Structures are given as structure tokens and as C-alpha cells.
User: Fold these one by one.
Assistant:
Number 1:
Amino acid sequence: MRRIKSVAAATALAALLASTAASAETLKFAFQGTLNQLDPYSLNETFTLGMLGNAYEGLTRRGANLEIEPALAESWEIVEPNRWRFHLRKGVKFHNGNDFTAEDVVFSAERLRAEGSDLKTRLGADVKVEIVDDHTVDFVLPGPNPILHYEWDTWYIMDKEWTEANNAVKVTSASDTNPNHAALHANGTGPFRIDTHEAGVKTVYSKYDGWWDKPTHNLDTVEFTPIASDATRIAALLSGELDMVYPVPVQDIKRVEDNDGTRALTGPELRTIFLGMDQRRDELLHSSVKGKNPFQDRRVRLAFYQAIDMEAIKDKVMRGLSTPSALMISPFLFSRADEFKRYPYDPEASKKLLAEAGYPDGFSVGMDCPNDRYVNDEAICQTVAAFLARVGVKVDLNAQPKAKYFAKVLASGGYDTSFYLLGWTPSSFDSWNVLANIEGCRDDAGNGGQFNLGGYCNPEVDKLAARILEENDPEKRDDLIAEAFRLTIGDVSHIPLHQQGLAWGVSDKVDVVQRADNQFLFRSVQKH
Amino acid sequence: MLAFTIRRLLQAILVMLVVALIAFTLFRYVGDPVNQMVGVETSAEEREALRERLGLNAPVMVQFARFIGHAALFDFGTSYQFKQPVADMIGKRLPATLELSLVSALLALLVGIPMGVYTGLNRDSALSKFFLSVSLIGISLPTFLIGILLIFVFSVNLQWLPSFGRGEVVQIGWWSTGLLTTSGLKALVLPAITLGLFQMTLIMRLVRAEMLEVIRTDYIKFARARGLPDRIVHFRHALKNTLVPVITIAGLQLGTIIAFAIITETVFQWPGMGLLFLQAVQNVDIPIMAAYLMLIAFLFVVINLIVDILYFLVDPRLRAERAVH
């Protein structure tokens, strides 16, 4: 009897050992920010959408090089110029076991555009969504739009039945007083389900066995912890407690590289950092020049441009992790970007331009800058101020936390700025977004180019943007885009500085795919 | 006694109201919450509509009155970032902060008092000098630096202890505790030392100074003259009399430890209230900031009230004086 018992115990022990040997692979990683809530339509922000993209899926998705791939839609076609037909994937099940059908797409389209949604731009309010059959959906547009589906990789499809059953049809909005079920739980079709979510503390994912696609990852569990302190985040990677952390501050990249067992993955990010100048007011709010606005003179704008040495900023401030840019969009996102060159760094020419414009002794101007938004943002502004001082322009720098900075310079603050630093990633990965938001004319309330803080306005550019929006032929479209960029560069509408770099710290135990949009997708992670 | 307590309670309420008012005035200068709540593509009108719905366009006084009205019912609203009730979120984070603070305070007392006694009795020994130099570091180095140094030595180089988080926690009712698991205890070591170091050195120096004072007094000389052993003289007669100010300071410092846990929690990503507060400041999450400040003010007020009442009970002179009036 005793013998049987001990044999049984040994077997049990062996089984236990075997199960740990084939054990669950857990990926532990940290990011500097928190995943606040789980409603996929509540916040249009890269990190939130990226994290939710592991549990939810859109009709399309983007691959390692950001190319559009079929996801919940197997294929699509433009049946008439104004009618797009999407053929949905069959046999897809949500995490709760419900079937994915055309009804879910229509429901998600309605919820996406409902009150409180922050992703309304994903699908125009005047687009009709029609069910053809259970697995076919038509989108009827008011006019042609070649980039209709460009942002649909982050328009996640929700389960109609689940959302209704949990009383979560209304989008979780910031002014809600009751917590919404969808803000605290997720039910998608993606490769991972979200098991527990403690906002600001920890989020745990587990593999979804019923995923329609063949997994290219070997993970069972993923643990995400937000770690705000840079030093702690890096220490946790170096000590082997975490498999992956991001972002890695530029000054720590070498340390991560030199450490045994970790490496730094770096690459250009899609975000373009640039300077803008108030060209709308007839007198600058923050300047020694009274009665006129020096930035309305192209020569002054060009003088500022040519006074700044971007190579020096790349070497000294960004420690090599940046790419000086000539365009207001990442060269990665516009096929003909290499036709454009930066105006050369030339302080002498700059001084001459200022003298011609009537400012031989320069002038002083206030500059607004965030200090916790972009990579080394404040240091960049300080360096810019130093370069401008060499040509006689005195910059009074006002660097503040992003909460204060944006409250001042955006429409809600009345565009209270004369000279500012801003970064922009076109969410559609397309030039039209830049031409409309950053280069488009606007009024004082912010209608039009809402993020054109300086109010640059060239009606020709607006006309081209309108044509670009409707042009279905890719080649002609690129011609128009190039023409629009040529106009804005000729005008020196803004001063593009660089594409900032992205840097991830990764343990040698894992292989990850780094995407230029800084999204971290678990579906391609291998741990060994 | 009753009148005294009521008077102190009324004062406490006044203090809370003033704290709330100051906090509310400050919120005007932390930035615009709406920009932190929506993505870049949200239109100007929608931002304005959201601001209106949140009641941010109302005058500060109206917002303040609204907040006080709700706070009186323990309703602190919904967090802007997390879309969850603030009272729940703070309730979830409270155990982490309290555990860390209490362990730090205990550490400070249990290590600080013996060190103080030793250095007070053996002023010139090498060990005393060593303790005093160490305590200088504790007093002068900022907390975040100590935390990062500890992480560097014990997590990165020696890999003994975790650099962040609370380890595994066990849920007992609504209270989550890390004191019952190995990983929870390991995770507690570095943050507790970081947070408690300043108080430890403070208590050590206080005990030392008091000991030096007491040792010189007549009754200690008499105790020695009576031939009592050193142990009894030092610990029963001397130490006992040094403890009155130490207890006062330690009590008041407990509030400070809880309030200043913000920095330690940030360095170690300790999921307590302080971390929540700091994230709230960065994102202009006014409901969380307001609730946290009120809670800390409340803690200080309660501790002060208890200390006052204890004085009243302990010190007969206070009672006698009142009786005359």
C-alpha cells in the first residue's frame, strides 16, 4: 500500500516536473506610460491602441513594415468608386465564443461614430454601412476616398452581443460617472485575451487558443507593468526581471548594449519633430517687434531654418538617434521623399536674410516647448535657442510639462504661441493627414488645420489637399502630394527638424519585431 | 475634555476646507485635463463640449462647492484617465502605501533607537562615528537617489532583490497584502529602507541627543551611586525618559512617511497612492489629485488630533489649568 502511494507520488511529481519543463512562456515587459482603460474607442493614442491590438482586431492590420494586410476582412474591392465591399473572414470567434459576423461590423461602425468616441475620424459620419450577407459588408461613401481603410488596423471590431449584454453600448467617455464594462474588460478576436487589468499597476494577457491565424509567437502569458521612472525601467531590464522595456532613454542605449544578455533595438520613428511660427497674427504675442509680425516675411522664416545645424543636434542632443528631415512627413510614408532636400545650414546666409528683412540686429521672440513629450524635447529647444542666438535672435524659452504646454498652444488655449516645437505622426500613415492638419488654413477657433498652430495659410495647398483626398490613382496622387509639399517647403511653412528615433531594450531571451509606429505586438514574439 | 475634543474637531474641519480650497486654486495652474483625455484628432468643438460636460467651464468657486458637496458624501467622482470611481481606486492603492509606510516606520524605530542609545553611551567609539557618518548620508541624500543606488547595487549587480513592484499579493477581503508571500517580502525590502532611512537617522540622532542630556542628570548619578547595574540604569532609567519626545516625533513622522511615499513609490513603481497621485499630476487628473490631497490632509489632522488628546490625557497640568477656567 505504502509502495503504491509512493509510486503515485513519484508519478505526480514527474507529471508536475514535465508540465513545468514544457512550461508556460511568460513575457514580462514595461512601458513608461499606463494603459488606462480598455474601451477601444475611448482614446486615440498609439500606446493604448497598440496594447488593445493584442486582444482586438480590425478588418485590416499592418505587418512588420506597416504594410496593410487582411485581418478580419479576407479581401476587399472597390465595386463602384463610392462603394467598397469587404469580404469578412469566416469561422472567426470572439474570446467569449461568439461568432464574428457582418452585424458586429455594423455595430462597431455605429459605436465608433457615437457620442463620446475619440476615434470618429476612422470612418466619416456620412459613410453608410450596409450588410450584404452574413460575411459581406458594403461601405457607401459620399465621394471617392482612396485611403478609407488606412486607419482601420486600429478600428477594432467589438462583439455586438457582448457589448449589449454588458450594457456597454455607450462609449466610455471621460465625463461618465459610472464605470463602463468595456473600460475594464476586453472581448476581441485577437491572439491574446486580457485576463486581468489593474489600471496603472499590471495587465495580464493569456494566449487565445481559438485565434483564426497561425500563431508566430510561442507565448502563453504576457505581463505588462507600467514603470514611469527611466532608471528603474532600465534597471529592471538589466537585472533580468523584465524581457523587454521601452522606451530606452538615448543616454542609456549604450548601457543596455554593453550589458550581457540585453540589447537595444533602435530605428527611426514615424514622428516628425518640427518648429512652427505664428504667421497669422499681425503682431506677435511674445516678441520685441511691435506693430508687425516678422514671421509673415518668408526671409525671416528661412533665416531661422538656415541658422539651425541639425547634424549637431543629431550628434550632441540625440546621440545619433535621429534623422534630420526635409519633409513634414516621415520619408518612410511617402515614396518620393528622396526628391526633397533640407535647406543647408548656413548662419551667414541667415544673418543676411535677417538684415534684408529689416532685422540686422535680430529681435527677441518667446518660444514654447514641452519638456516631457518627445525625446529630449527641452534639450532640442535649448540648442535651437543657442543657434538662433548666433544670428542675433534672442529666444526666451518657455519649456513646460505637456499638460501645461498643450493647454497654452492648442486651440483651447487660443493658440497662445509665437514660436513652438511640436511633433506629428499622421495616424493614417498618409500625407493628406499632414497637409490637412498641419499645413491647412484655419480660423481663430481652430476650424481647418487644427494643429497648424502658427496659422500658415496657402490656398493653393488647400486646393491640392482636397484633390489628393479624392484621387484614386496612386501615381497621380503622389504627384499632387509632391506638388503640395514643394509649395509648403517653398513657403517655409514650418521648419522640419528630424524624425526622432525609437529605442527598445530587449533581453537576448526574446525576439521581437520593432515597428516604426512604436507599437509592440505580441503576436510575433518568440521567447527561448 | 468633551468641549476640548469638539473644539479640535471643528478646527480639523476648517483645516480640511482650507486644504481643499488651496488645492482647488492650484488646479487652475496644472494644465488642461481635456488635452490629456482625448487623442490629437478630436476637434475643437468636441473638446469644448467635453470641457462643458466635466464642469470645467464653471467658476472655480462653483467647482469647489460642487466638490465639497460630493466629498461630504464620500463621492470623489470618476478619474479622468482611468474612467473608474476615484474612491475605489484609492481604496485599492491604500493597502500598498500603508504597508510600506508602517514597515518603514517600524524599521526606523527598531534600528534607530538602539543605534541612538549606542552612540549616546559610547560617544567616542569607532562604531559610533561610523553610525553618525551613515546617518549623515541618510539625512542629506535625496530619497530618489538612495532608491536608485539601492536598485543599482541589490537588483542590477547582486540580483538579490527586485527593482520594482510589489511581488505577489494575497487578497484578504478588500485588503491586498504582500506580507504573506516571499516575493512580496523581498519586494518590500528596498522601498522600505529607502523610505525609512531619513526617519531612522532622525530618530537615531534624537535618541542620542536625549541620552546625552539624560545621562548627565542627577537621578542617573544617584542611580549609579545606588550601585545599580549599567543595563538597568541605561535602559530603565535613561532610555525611558528619552522616549517622550521620540514618541511624539515618531507619531508625527508617520504622517510624513505616508505623504512622502510619493517619491519612493515612483522610484520603485510601488503601486500605492503616491504613484497614483504622481501619474494624476502628469495627466491633470483633477478628481484623483483632489481626493488624494484630502486624504493626506485628513491623515495629518487625525494624527494631530490623537496626539493632542494624548497630551491632554498624559499631562495632568493641562487638565488642571483648564479646570481653573
Note: Residues 230-267 of chain B form the longest helix (38 residues).
Number 2:
Amino acid sequence: MLRYFIKRILLLIPIIVAVTIVVFTLMYLVPGDPAEILLSGTATPEDVELLRETMGLNDPYFVRLGRFLSDTYIHFDFGTSYSTNQDIWTSIKDRLPRTMKLSLATMALSALFGIPLGIYAAIKQGRLGDNICMLLALVGVSIPNFWLALLLILLFSVNLGWLPALGIGGIKYYVLPALSGCVGGIATEARQTRSSMLEVIRSDYIITARSKGVSEFDVIMKHALKNAMIPIITLIGSQFGFIVGGSMITETIFSIPGMGSFIINGVNSRDYPVVQAGSIFIAAFFSFGMVLVDILYAAVDPRIKAQYTKKKRR
Amino acid sequence: MADTVYERAKNPEKIKKDTEFRRVVKQLSYNKLATFGIILFVVLLVICLMAPIIAPYDYQAIDLRNKSQTPNAEHLFGTDNLGRDILSRVLYGGRYSITMGIFSLMVSLVLGTILGSIAGYFGDWVDNIIMRALDIIQSLPGMLLTIVLSAVLGSGYINTILALSINGIPGEARMLRGQILKVRGNEYVEAAQAINCSKTRIITQHILPNSFSPMIVQASMGIASRIMTASSLSFIGLGVQPPAPEWGAMLSDARVYIREYPHMILFPGIAIALTVLSLNLFGDGLRDALDPKLKR
């Protein structure tokens, strides 16, 4: 298991380097001259040219790419922000944990409510409870999370005054953001859990378990759910990307100084080093999450574990 | 029926379409929610496209004497902070939001289909290169990729469609590749190869028509998710810019007035949710109709 884990972590390195190159190339293609942005239009053409030269903007693409990669991975230097002149790594150190907290809370809430709801709907298949759950889930999938965030602010902050609408602080500042992010997740996970439960519930081994006289609870929890988990975990993995992306939007609504608002402000003020570094960290966080999902697979499915141990023996 | 391999190879679409298409429509008609979904979507689309005829007011006419009215008989959805009629703006906004979803889906479907068919049909190193490249694109969360792309391309209607399209290519390509791998082994493809059909012909005439149904499911869901992403982009200030009445941009404008005039955030959001819901209902029903495993 440990070797599998290490192997997956090591495989992350080429992916993140590739992402770095992609993001750098995209930023390279952005129209507009960083030197001009920095000097904000008042400088003479000679000043701009001088700055271009000192920043190395006149160098060819590959030279700049090489310099960027060595700065990032060898010197661990992400540069300074054009607009605030702050060291980017210092900002990210403060901001990344907030985005991680929000995304993980959203993920946890989605699974915590989505999976039981799906199980319930599958047990009650075709009956009223199932229909209500699935209709609600469909509505949940269809509500844009930023609109839901606004509605939640309207209800809980403006009208009831129970929860803060903006900023960061204690745990109560994360309630509304996580809530607005998790509704889509709950709905998707409930739908997936239901359909994979339904697929499993008809298998022979479930009938066998029932005929052995295993209690219905054990049949569902031990026999059916365990086998239905694989597609659910796949879904949780693919949800993760949505949730991280959604958190970026949610952060801007709730004025949480996390990675999302960092990158989006960077895009709006054409602060490219910020966008570059921010994207790389989000991609790394996302890829690391996917590795955890892969490991979860191995933990849940003995077939995958066995595959791996066979390889080890060889 | 003379359903020989030769007949199929000679005229594959006709026979296939007849049965497959009819079966799907028949299955769909049993599913009332899906039928409701597609009807709702078409109605919404038609209403929005006919906005110049239907809309009661000019969507950009500023009327400061009647600003920030709550819904009333004259302004069914009320007016915004500049006195513009929200109903008219929502109607015009649909033209942006829905068409952005449809067009970007079409672009990524075409490009994804080309990439996916090449990868799936030729296999080997071609497949490897294409799939690894798509892997890299997909190791950025979709929203982040769209944000970065719209930074590169700039804001505006066409650029947002492009950003959404590029973001959607990997998904479409993957789906199609999977389909091709599934269909490739079938006898009619073998038969077509035996009578020396060209590869392009096999892909366009034999494989694509048979991958049609999952493509439609993915398309309806795809339009829905793109409408959401497009409006989120406009909401955070990328995408389509105000004063254009794109739904997300309207919400972004209205957000400032959430305390004073909450009705401003209500209607654009309902419009997005309703459109997305109609497409999801349809896609869901269609998937059930197509999936033999779910027929119980």
C-alpha cells in the first residue's frame, strides 16, 4: 500500500510540471505588455523598453519558460505581484489553507448527506420517498451555486441576521459558503449512489444474503453499499474538481481571501505572476486530492488492492 | 427483413436510425418528466429568441423615475436600480446565456469528436499522445481552466464561447473515444473494413451514427453545465460584461443591492435554474431511455 501511495505521489510531479508549462504558455499568450501594466501608462517608451529588458520579457519563449521553471522549482520563488508588490508565496501561504478548508468542508458535507440520501432513495425505489428525493436532487443540481449563495445571504444574514455574510473568522464564517457549495454535490452524489445501489441490489449475492436471513440493514450496508462504492468514489473524485472550482467563485461572493479571489483578482488586474502561481497551487491541490481518491479505491475494492500486490510480488 | 451484413454495409444509417431513433423516442414519450423537460427548454429558448417581439420594454431603457420597483402590474418582474425592466432584461439575457451554452457545446463537440475519433480509431501512440495531452488539460479544475482561458482570450460573447468550448473538448473527446472502442469491434465495422471503406468513411458513416445516443445525452447535460459556467464567469466579471443583460452579469449587478432590493437577484437566478433544470430533466430521461440496464 505504501509503495502504491509513493508511486502515485511521484507520478504527480510530471503532471504538475506539465500544468506549469501549460499555464505559463497561456499567460505568455495573453495580449498586453506586463511592463506597460507595471508602469501604468505614464512612462516613456524608453522606460518601458528598459523594464522589458530587465524583466527579461524580450527573451524568446523557451528562455523565459526555462527561467520560470527554475525559479519555481529550484529556487521556489514565485515572484512578486504586479499590483501589490507583495511576495506571492507569502500571500499563498495565507490563502491556500482557506480554500482547502472550504473545499474539504464542502466535500465532506456533500458525501455526508448525499450518500445516505441516495441509499434511502434506492431502498424506496419507485415510491414517494424516492421520487421526492430525486426531484429535489434534480433541482439541487440545477441551481447555480453563486445564486444559491446570494439567496442564503439574503435569508440568513440580511433577514434573520444569524450568520455573517462576509469575511473570515471563526467557523460560522464558513457555514454559508460551504452550504452554498455543497447543495450541488449532495444532489449529484445522491443520484449516483441511488443508481449504483440499484445496480447492485439486484445481484445474486444480495439475494443469497437475504435468503440466508441476513438482516435488511446488514444486506444494505455490508453487502450492497460496499459493492456500490466504486462508482460513488469515482464521482467524488470528479466532484472534487467542481468543488474546488466552485469554491473559487464562492470565495469572491463571501469575500473570503482565498485562492479563488486571489486568481480572479489577478485576472482582472492582469497580474499574471499571481495567476500563474495561483493556478499551479490549485492544480497541485486538485491532483493531490485525486491521488487520495485513487488510494481510497484501493482501500475499498479488494480487487484493485490485489492487482497491486500481485505486481509487487513479480 | 433482409438484415444481412451486406445490406447493413450498403445502407447502415437507414436501418439503424429507423430502429434506434424510434426506440428512443418511444421510450422518451413514456418518461413524462423528460418530455416536460424538452418542451420547457424549447419554450424558454423560443421565448428568449423572440425577445424583441415579446419584451414589454426596451431592455436598456433607463427610467430613473421608476427605479428599483418591486414586481407590479406594469413591470412584472420589477425594475432594477436604473429603472430598467427586469422582465425584458431576463428575456434578452436568455439570448446570451442559452446561445452561449449551445454554441460552445457545438464547438467542443466538433473538436472533441475529431480528436476522440482519431484517438479511438487509430489507437496506439496516436491515442497515447492525444489522451495524455487531454489528461494535462484536465488536471486543472474546469472552472480554473475557463478563468485562465478567458484571461487569455479576453471577455465578451465570442471569447467566452471559445473559453467554454476549449474547456469542454476533453470531456467530449473522452466520451467519443470510449464509444468508438466499444463500437469498433462490431461486425458491421469489420464488414465495412472488408469491403475496403476508407477510415474517414468508417468513422463518419458507421461509428459516429452508432455513438449518437450517448452524445445526445452528454450534449443536453453539457449545454446545462455550460450555461451555469458561462453565467458564473459573467458573475465574477469575466465573460459577458454589463450592461449586456446576461443572466450572470445581471446577478453580479444586483448583488450590490441585495439588502435594499432583493427582487433584483431573484429573477435572473430563477431563469438560469429553470433552463438548466429543463435540460437536466431531458438528459436524465434520455439516459434512462437509452440505458438497457435501467429498464426494469
Note: Chain B has a mean pLDDT of 81.
